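Question:
Now give any protein.
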Amino acid sequence: MQTVTLSLKEKNTIPIEADAINPDNFASKSKDDIAAIMVWYGNAQSPIGDLFDVSIDGSDSAGNTKIIINGDVSRVKRIGQDMSAGEIVINSSVDMHCGSNMTGGKITINGDADSWLGCEMKGGEIELNGNGGYYVGGGYRGEACGMKGGKITVTGNVRDYLGEHICGGEIVVKGDVGLLPGISNSGGKIVIEGNTTMPASEMKSGTIIVKGKVAELMPTFKEDGTEEVDGVTYRKLLGDVNIAGSKGVLLVK
């Protein structure tokens, strides 16, 4: 097992682009090697060691590498981007694009996350012990698919466009969600335990379950009786009927 601890030296106002911080890049490297890895600090590159104190215990493969990040990294973007294995634990809030395009491993965030958390992820797991921003599990503008696999769990609330045009995977939000969750879904599963507004617009396939209240329901769904999930009976709606051949399922209480 290899454990790498990064402690931010001082809170940054200039954003750091830290896509290099992931187990794939740190596996089997020495403390000096990791400290020398370059990240973007504003419009120039800087070694990780200039921005973080680095400590290391052991040496192992990416799958057995754990990165612990301490200090306020709420202005540090892209942590865990493209990671395929291992684990990252972030003990603060984090900036945009955390875990985007990841294919494996696990990220735990003990704070809030800004927009595009887990954007276009294909595998692995993200656990957010706080609130999320816009486009959690969604896709970048112009892309055909957002999230394709893996699982995102959020213990708090999430803002608008949760899971925008996801094609696979699962998102569970234990709090409330803003406008238009699951818009243009083409697969996958979204579970919202709190309240939301206008879920599943332009949905093509997949399943969305809303356990709380729906403030406004799109009129483009047709009733299909009820369905029981985990002992709870939901009103079942099919659609979006504006989309030809749609096989989407929306379950609401």
The CA atoms of residues 34 and 55 lie 9 Å apart. The radius of gyration is 19 Å.
